[in-house]
Amino acid sequence: MIYFVQSIATQLVKIGTTKCLAQRLNGLRIEAGGDVDVLGVAKGGRPEETSLHEHFQHLHVKGEWFRPEAELLEYIKQNARPWHRGLGTFTVSIDEDTEAGLQAFLNSLEYRPQFSRLFRRAIQEFLARRGFYSLPDLPHRQHRSRCVPGA
Predict the structure, then answer these.
(1) Measured between alpha carbons, how far is 125 from 22 in angstroms, rounded to an integer?
(2) Quick one: how far is CA 59 from the chain centroid?
(3) Which of 45, 62, 87, 121 is paired with 147 by a 20 to 30 Å CA distance?
(4) Are residues 63 and 93 in the same domain?
């Protein structure tokens, strides 16, 4: 994914690529010398990033950082989508039979380390909203964090 972030301190805009922006943000804060705003993200990889760097070469300051002039900001507005950390909120409507089936499935689940905390939390919240029991807090095996594509 291509990302566009703006340094709060310098107002410069970075055009970069990453597979996981959530994990990349700490490094970006260090590079920027403080907090950054994510202006947007777009589909693409290194070839598209290189093309953007060449297109906006006249705004280049250093590395992958560019002056935030109207042309670049308008490009981002027209071609990038907002980025939100995590999955956000969504509503699902299901009938009683489906809900009963889901409850039976959840009742049969055994703890498995591959279930992420996010997935487990989503299940717990789903059950709590419907007045069911929640999954017990079980210890989590230490593992590397994984990034959801597009997150």
Answers:
(1) 23
(2) 27
(3) 62
(4) no
Among 71, 76, 46, residue whose Cα is nearest residue 57? 71
Q: Is residue 122 part of a domain?
A: yes
| Token pair of 36 as six digits | 């950054």
The answer to whether position 151 is within a domain reads no
Domain co-membership, 65 together with 8? yes
Tokens of 49: 């990033």
Along the chain (151 residues), what's the average pLDDT of each consecutive run of 10 residues?
A: 94 94 88 91 94 97 96 96 61 60 60 57 68 47 47 49
Whether the CB-CB separation of 14 and 64 falls below 8 Å is answered with yes
Written in H, E and C, the secondary structure of the chain is CEEEEEECCCCCEEEEECCCHHHHHHHHHHHHCCCEEEEEEECCCHHHHHHHHHHCHHHEEECCEECCCHHHHHHHHHHCECCCCCCCCCCCCCCHHHHHHHHHHHHHCCCCCCCCHHHHHHHHHHHHHCCCCCCCCCCCCCCCCCCCCCC
Q: 0.85 exceeded by the pTM?
A: no
